[in-house]
Give the backbone structure.
Amino acid sequence: MLSLGESQPGLGAVLEHGIAIEVGPQRIRLSFPEGSFFGTQAASDPARQALADAAERLFGERPSVEISFGQGATGTSIAAQKDAKTDRERARVLKEALDHPRV
């Protein structure tokens, strides 16, 4: 079974910018920052339908999909986690280079 990110990589990338408030067979709720371009894309009917379709394949029932803005959800988005990991790796490589005996 293909994941949503594999079957629709653009939509998968958009959804990575949201914070999951609730994910289950009855309801999926994602929150985006106020005025978020990614949130606007995720809130479109085609995006919500694609997310519901993918969730239905996973859960065996079709959840409602709710996209909200500025709900103050705790946690970080997948995109923010990936950015933080990239920053840590970049800092590690820089430190390694600066600590090299020939530098």
Remarks:
- The first strand starts at residue 19 and ends at 23.
- The two ends are 50 Å apart (CA to CA).
- The mean pLDDT is 87.
